[in-house]
Amino acid sequence: MVPDGLRFAFGTLTVFRVRVERWDRTAGGAAMVLAPVVGLAVGAVAGAAGALAAWRGGALLGAVAAVAAGALLTRGLHLDGVADVADGLGSGKAAEDALRIMKQSDIGPFGVLTLLLLMLAQVAALAGQFALSPGRGALAACVAAVAGRTALAWGCLRSVPAARPGGLGAMVAATVPPAAAVAVTVLAAGAAGAARWQCGAALLVGVAAAALLLRRCVRRFGGVTGDVLGALVETAATATLVAVALA
Questions:
Q1: What is the C-alpha to C-alpha distance for residues 85 and 62, in angstroms, rounded to an integer?
Q2: Mean pLDDT of the chain, nearest integer
């Protein structure tokens, strides 16, 4: 299932042109476990773009370039999820009404504010790393991208149901065994820690932050949706960057 899982992951989570040959829950579950590989690819490109911009134009420009590159490579999919989840949680309405709000194409005030603060936090944290060196900034961008995709395995645990039928969320919900989520997290943290121990610890902080959001969303909406999974990605990535900045 590794080839099918990778194709599913790259085909659904990035703009990379990949032919998805299997579209079923088995391939979807494999994709969620292998998603950190997607994060590595996206993070490497975003980090390289940021390092180049920082080298020529300064740390702040490098940070903006890295965040922008990550958004472009994913069509802003996860950022859209953040905004929709913020509107759903902030609405204060019953689960059914909150899910309807999340499905609407417009973005409400909670979504705008959350998206603005989240991206500012990412840029600020990355700017500090790029100020130290282009390499440090690139590493932070890469680790954050991997952390975000590592959180997807936890969002798709077998104990976590889909909040509604249909869509990518329902396709991959409840497909990942707990042992697989633990294993991929340990591997991702170990790889990040091998580059710099603070990065390994920061990745675990990011995944833990996403787990807290997941718990809130499951209680509020009754399960996960594609938007919730996108929000987990960005939450884990942002928390990882903040942890790196504070380490």
A1: 28
A2: 95
Other beta carbons within 10 Å of 222? 16
CA end-to-end span of the chain:
38
CA distances from 238 to 92, 143, 175 (A): 25, 11, 25
Q: Which residue has the tokens 């579950």?
A: 29
Q: Which two tokens stand for residue 27?
A: 């391939």
**pTM of whole model > 0.90?**
yes
Cβ neighbours of 45 (radius 10 Å): 20
**Distance of alpha carbon 136 from alpha carbon 194, whole angstroms:** 14
Cα–Cα nearest to 236, from 152, 124, 158: 152
**Is there a contact between 50 and 129 (Cβ–Cβ < 8 Å)?**
no
Q: Which residues contact 186 (CB under 8 A, 6 or more apart)?
A: none
By mean pLDDT, which of 48-52, 136-140, 165-169 is the weakest? 165-169
Structural contact between residues 223 and 162, judged by C-beta atoms closer than 8 angstroms: yes
Residues 19-64: pLDDT tens digits? 888 889 999 999 999 999 999 999 999 999 999 999 999 999 999 9
The distance from CA 44 to its chain's CA centroid, rounded to whole angstroms, is 15
Closest by Cα among 22, 43, 16 to 236: 43
> So what's the pLDDT on residue 135?
96
Instruction: Give me the pLDDT at residue 106, please.
Output: 84
Q: Give CA–CA dist 214/159, Å, rounded.
A: 12
Alpha-carbon dihedral 210, 63, 138, 55, rounded to 10 degrees:
180
What is the spatial distance between Cα 26 and Cα 8, in angstroms, rounded to a whole number? 10
Decide: helix, strand or coil at residue 157.
strand
